[in-house]
Design goal:
mainly alpha, Arc Repressor Mutant, subunit A, Tetracycline Repressor, domain 2, 2 domains, 11 helices, 70% helix
């Protein structure tokens, strides 16, 4: 299972001649990730981001050139973090026997979604709109993720660990398993609990592994 998209996840901050400039850019990107993933692209203004980052007005234009380039920098940082969590799992999976490897990678995918719920929030929002932002995300990140998920399904079906699902069925079942983390406020209102507590993450990872690949015995993986 390969995931070459991780080679396209580093943010090259423009105009970072000084440490102060770099810190400002980092603060803006963190604020941008938060606001874009919560309110969406159209509802998020550059001024709102600057206020959240507690920096002076017009610094997004100064450092990034505008809203579109800034959004891309935020997405690059966010998806980079997500994929960096998956890399160690892919390396570890090489030494696990085939049927358990499938369940192990399913669990790790759920845990990555829990660690960075902003990814799922972005995809819920952008996935509804057939525009340049969705095309940018798909071509830069999710098309390759889909290819990796197809390989995971093919390997799992070959060893009898996964049921007869199509690639797209399996992909969206796996992706949607992170909804409880992306929709943490609703989860909290319904249950009175934090969906991103470690016990809840482990329980969801195990539930999805058992649902998609029943018969797992490696609960501690």
């Amino acid at each position: 299972m390969k995931l070459n998209a991780v080679t396209k996840t580093s943010v090259e901050y423009p105009d970072s001649k000084s440490e102060k400039s770099r810190r400002t850019q980092q603060k803006l990107v963190e604020a941008g990730i938060d606001l874009f993933s919560t309110y969406g692209y159209d509802a998020t203004t550059t001024r709102n981001v600057e206020l959240r980052a507690n920096v002076q007005r017009n610094l997004i234009s100064y450092h990034f050139g505008g809203k579109e380039a800034f959004w891309k920098a935020c997405m690059t940082k966010l998806f980079g973090r997500f994929y960096e969590l998956l890399l160690p799992a892919l390396s570890q999976a090489k030494d696990i026997e085939p049927s358990e490897r499938t369940r192990f990678l399913i669990r790790q995918s759920v845990r990555a979604s829990a660690a960075h719920p902003e990814v799922m929030r972005i995809m819920f929002d952008e996935g509804r709109c057939d525009d340049w932002r969705l095309e940018w995300i798909v071509e830069r990140y999710t098309r390759e993720l889909f290819s990796a998920v197809k390989e995971l399904l093919d390997d799992g079906q070959a060893c009898g660990a996964l049921p007869a699902l199509t690639h797209l069925q399996f992909y969206y079942l796996l992706v949607s398993s992170g909804a409880m983390f992306a929709m943490a406020p609703e989860y909290r209102l319904l249950s009175g609990k934090n969906s991103c507590e470690e016990a809840n993450i482990d329980a969801q990872a195990e539930a999805i592994a058992q649902l998609l690949a029943p018969g797992s015995s490696g609960r501690n993986l």
